[in-house]
Amino acid sequence: MGNERETVLLLRDVDQSYGARRVLERVSVRVGAGGCVALLGENGSGKSTLLRLAAGREEPAAGSVLFRGECLAEDHPRRRAEVATVLDQAAHYPDLTVREHLMLVALAHGRDRRAKPVVDDVLDAHRLAGHAEAYPDELSSGQRQLMALATTEVRPYSLLLLDEPEQRLDAGARRELAGRLKAARHRGAAVLLATHDSALADAVADTQLALTDGRLVDNR
């Protein structure tokens, strides 16, 4: 799990501020193909900001964010094709069912004729088969989180960015999430996630980074 892996994501000496408040200070993170970095830290430590920078949703005040060696905005075609995210509160269309959401994502990423079997498998794997025709607002908060995570599984990606993916999931669903993240690594995807669940981090990450007040304070 060493540095010989191809670098997929590199944040180098990144600073970020909102007005007078500095949120990140000289943070560097590298994620290689088939690797997983887990970001640990209290709420407000800068984890979510770092993920938004990694996703291209924000530009850093200083430093650089490189995806496969290039600075690419979130809407760049290569980023849209290769980067899957579940950040903040996942957006959804209130008039689309769970199945329709997943079909939309699958078709948008070229699944075509394979979209239906892929979606059916992902619905089963995320315990959503019995809610496939429900609308998002009819789901529990845990089921909406599973739907958001399911959207990443119906499409290809080389980089997966997750902000507290374990939130609102029961113990069984967390174990299943860990299994899917390990499978993603086995396929060669790079994974960067923020989490409060040390068991999840231990299960899936080859590197754990702790943030305190916007600075890296630990590297395991």
Automatic annotation (TrEMBL):
<dbReference type="InterPro" id="IPR050166">
    <property type="entry name" value="ABC_transporter_ATP-bind"/>
</dbReference>
<dbReference type="InterPro" id="IPR027417">
    <property type="entry name" value="P-loop_NTPase"/>
</dbReference>
<dbReference type="Pfam" id="PF00005">
    <property type="entry name" value="ABC_tran"/>
</dbReference>
<dbReference type="InterPro" id="IPR003593">
    <property type="entry name" value="AAA+_ATPase"/>
</dbReference>
<protein>
    <submittedName>
        <fullName>ABC transporter ATP-binding protein</fullName>
    </submittedName>
</protein>
<keyword id="KW-0813">Transport</keyword>
<keyword id="KW-0547">Nucleotide-binding</keyword>
<dbReference type="GO" id="GO:0005524">
    <property type="term" value="F:ATP binding"/>
</dbReference>
<feature type="domain" description="ABC transporter">
    <location>
        <begin position="9"/>
        <end position="219"/>
    </location>
</feature>
<keyword id="KW-0067">ATP-binding</keyword>
<dbReference type="InterPro" id="IPR003439">
    <property type="entry name" value="ABC_transporter-like_ATP-bd"/>
</dbReference>
